[in-house]
Amino acid sequence: MKRNFIISTGIIAVAFAGMTGIMSMKDDSATGKTTEENTAVLNYQTYCAGCHGDNLEKFTAKKWMDEPDNASVISSIKQGIEIQGMPSFVETFTEAEIEALAAYVKKGIPADRSKLKPAVAAGEVIKSEVQDFVVDTVVTGLDVPWGLAFLPGGDLLISERAGTLHLFSKGKLSPPIGGLPPIRAEGQGGLLDLCLHPDYETNGWIYFSYSALSPDKGNKTSNTAIMRARLEGNKLVDQQVIFRGDHDNDRSHHYGCKLTFDNQGHLFFGIGDRGQHYDFPQNLDNTNGKIHRINDDGSIPKDNPFVNTFGAIPSIYSFGHRNPQGNCIHPLSGELWESEHGPRGGDELNLIEPGKNYGWPVISYGINYNGTILTEFTEKEGMEQPLYYWDPSIAPCGMTFLTGDKYKKWRNNLFIGSLRFQYLERLVIQGRSVVHTEKLLQGIGRVRNVVVSPDGLIYVAIENPGKIVRLVPVEKER
Ligand code: HEC
């Protein structure tokens, strides 16, 4: 893989405006576009947008733009421009598709030519094992971005660990959004993940996790909490704390807490062991070292595994976790997958099943950071094995399955950020096994999160200097 990737500044609002063409594929009658035109939009987005921009903004102004016919565009598409890295597409499309694509490009070039930027050239395209792509910087000027949530219109909500929430809209970052609760932004704590209610368009609920202070103990201790609220202008309203971890302590690490809804409307999240009491994760009488499952309003689903267990916290879904830092739903099976920070050499990828014990700190593949032995057991009856573990530890952070078909060669792969080694890991999964891994974006910075946007692109949040980049696919052949 090449390391000299391109950094260009994309404007997300424009990007999404460009996408309406693809969305309208579903309904020709509503847009008044012919099927050929819609196919041209789709072909453009799949094969050309990586180098020429979502909104045709990356072309060098030349005379073909003003010619009366499309002949030279057609010939460029057929022949490509080898010396500058544009491939030939003569084998990719039919004659009719090429004509429709040429007409679309010619018509779509922005009227104001002074705003055009040059196309991405060959050297800027990153060639990974199977998929070529371009790195497009979307947001800069952040510190430690944590959670990302796309609103339906394409705006992006971004949480920062320092305790600020921003809306990125039309290429600009809003001032900090008001109405957040008091947050202990210290160590690993702060404002953590973000997600939208599955029915956000009707009810407007935004969920976020954070390190909540404990006023009764002079604000010196904390634990993870989850709030939901609605956005009104630049402030949050209707705030409701729907979950509060217990056994607060003065430690500022192992809070968890990525948020994920499954397709039945349950909210899943993990809380770490809070870095102190090793008996927390194995006991059901506390919230720490657990994966929890709650309803959208914080109430407890009746079928949670420990609702009838005396003394157990009823939101517990699984236990024996150290510090969960990634979770997502498998797009085909609907299962919950989770990644967590283990001790040295024991970071884990787990498949989470109700009521199961994932073993921390009784079993682990890791050792203490100072090299001393933590446990001599890597397995034990009644305790789950990870699907995969990383030795050396990569500090996995954020994870998502790639849904959609924007990247022809990466379909259904799992993507996980590495804080420690500063890359994005691609995992090829067969059933429940990791059969191959690849390191992408090596050296880009600590990867805090990775999500897929509604239009199917991979967005990656990087720390210090904090920025959000996206990977725009460059397809060559069918
Ligand atoms: C790997 C990057 C890449 C891809 C993919 C790509 N192009 Fe290009 N294209 C370029 C470069 C580089 C140039 C020349 C510089 C410029 O125009 O800014 C170019 C130039 C062009 C030109 C102008 C030709 C001229 O005479 O200057 C057209 C038209 C064009 N591309 C159309 C397309 C279409 C349509 C697609 C998708 C089917 C496509 N390109 C895919 C990189 C690419």
How much beta, percentage-wise?
25-35%
What's the end-to-end separation, in Å? 22 Å
Bound ligands: heme C
CATH hierarchy: architecture of the largest domain:
6 Propeller
CATH topology term of the largest domain? Neuraminidase
Count of extended strands: 26
Return the CATH class of the largest domain: Mainly Beta
* Low-confidence blocks of residues: 1-29
- Helical segment count: 6
Give the proportion of residues in helices.
10-25%
What about the largest sheet? 6 strands, mixed
What is the CATH superfamily label of the largest domain? TolB, C-terminal domain
Provide the structure class.
mainly beta
Summed up:
By secondary structure, this protein is mainly β. The protein contains six helices and 26 strands.
List the topology elements:
Layout: E1 8-9, H1 12-23, H2 28-31, H3 35-52, H4 71-79, H5 95-108, E2 126-127, E3 132-142, E4 145-150, E5 156-160, E6 164-169, E7 172-173, E8 191-196, H6 200-203, E9 206-213, E10 222-232, E11 235-244, E12 259-261, E13 267-271, E14 290-294, E15 316-319, E16 324-329, E17 336-340, E18 347-352, E19 388-390, E20 396-401, E21 414-418, E22 423-430, E23 433-440, E24 447-452, E25 458-462, E26 466-474
Parallel strand pairs: 1-3
Antiparallel strand pairs: 2-3, 3-26, 4-5, 5-6, 6-7, 8-9, 9-10, 10-11, 12-13, 13-14, 14-15, 16-17, 17-18, 18-19, 20-21, 21-22, 22-23, 24-25, 25-26
Helix pairs in contact: 3-5, 4-5
The structure holds heme C.
Heme C is lined by residues 47-48, 50-52, 59-60, 62, 64, 73, 76-77, 81, 84-86, 89, 101, 105, 118-122, 125, 474.
